[in-house]
Amino acid sequence: MSCLLFVPATERRKLEKAVTLPCRGIVLDLEDAVAPGRKADARDGLAELARAVRGAGRELYVRVNGLHTESWREDVAAAVAAGAPALLVPKAESHEGIAELGAALDAAEQITGAARKTTLVLLIETARGVLAMERLLAGSPRVAAGCLGLADLSLDLGISWDAALRERPALYVEQRLRLSLASRAAGIEKPWDAVYMNIGDGAGFADDVRLGRRVGCQGKLVVHPSQIEPVNAAYRIGDDELKRAQRIVESFERAVERGSGALTVDGMLVDEPVVARARAVLATAEGVVNAPGASGGA
Predict the structure, then answer these.
(1) Which positions of the chain have pLDDT values less than 70?
(2) What is the rounded CA–CA span in Å between residue 176 and residue 192?
(3) In which element (H, E) is residue 263 found?
(4) Which of 66, 84, 273, 282 has the most crowded Cβ, counting Cβ within 10 A?
(5) How do residues 52-63 score in pLDDT, each as one tens digit?
(6) DSSP per-residue letters across 47-75
(7) Which percentage of the chain shows pLDDT scores above 90?
């Protein structure tokens, strides 16, 4: 499963359905999906929803309000008290902000006696955040992964989301690849691919999912149940890919036995990097967890 599904932290009924769906994790959203007048209600009900997510065997994330708001500290305290192992941090754009968040987490974890450190997925959604991407991802041991927020980034740049993502050529390809490179350089998980806002645009969504896999994402953030299976299908290792990886490994091993270090398989030159990638595909298919960069799409 390769999706993280957003669910408003005020919507118990939506969560009851969400935890039955084939998604890897649930993001309980305290930010955009919750009206300003219901933020306190969302925090008050967070612990109950968190228990439901954990009970269903899904990974649990909480998206707090941005560090530029007045409510993020209360969100952090509520998330830690609810036992959330990871936070999504919107509009991450400064090392100082992440350090301040880290200090708030230290305090909350001390109060609750949390057994482990809360990790962070940074949502990079502004021009400042994009320009500081490498420093942000490498700037704290709490940072586990990154993701671009392309709707907010488009707003920040004064571009419509449709013009950026639905029109061709699509924008932000360079930034998505850069995020993958920066994540690898920082030694953290592969990035999560950005939300695709137009739920009814199946063809555009499929193109967007394929692009995310091509640039090395581990999966995609989704906002509607209908988006889950297309993502899972795109990130699933297919029979053809698996068989090709097996042919590469077996052919290479036979070549090594003969004293040769290079060969061709299906017309492609095969050497050590190609074999390493094929072994990673086989390991992923067998459910082996590898270091960052070893799993996902080529």
Answers:
(1) 261-262, 287-298
(2) 10
(3) strand 263-265
(4) 84
(5) 999 999 999 999
(6) HHHHHHHHHTT-EEEEEPPPTTSSSHHHH
(7) 77
In angstroms, the CA 286 to CA 281 distance is 9
Name the residue among 82, 90, 13, 98 with its Cα closest to residue 43. 82
Are 198 and 170 a contacting pair, CB within 8 Å? no
Written as six digits, the tokens of 285 are 């298919």
Q: Rounded CA gap, 274 and 263, in Å?
A: 11
What does the alpha-carbon distance between residue 178 and residue 190 come to, in Å, rounded to a whole number? 12
Q: Is the peptide bond between 141 and the residue preceding it cis, with omega within 30 degrees of 0?
A: no
Q: Which long-range contacts (CB under 8 A, 24 or more apart) does 195-200 make?
A: 195/6, 195/149, 195/150, 195/151, 195/220, 195/221, 195/222, 195/223, 196/165, 196/220, 196/222, 196/227, 197/151, 197/161, 197/165, 197/223, 198/162, 198/165, 198/166, 199/223, 199/224, 199/226, 199/227
Domain with CATH 3.20.20.60 in the chain: 3-233
The strand pairing partners of 221, in sequence order, are 4
Q: Quote the pLDDT of residue 261.
A: 66
The C-alpha angle 209, 30, 51, rounded to 5 degrees, equals: 90
Please state which of the four CATH numbers 3.30.420.40, 3.20.20.60, 3.40.50.1000, 1.10.10.10 is assigned to the domain occupying 3-233. Answer: 3.20.20.60
Q: Residue 17 is encoded by which pair of tokens?
A: 């359905």
Output the pTM of the full model: 0.87
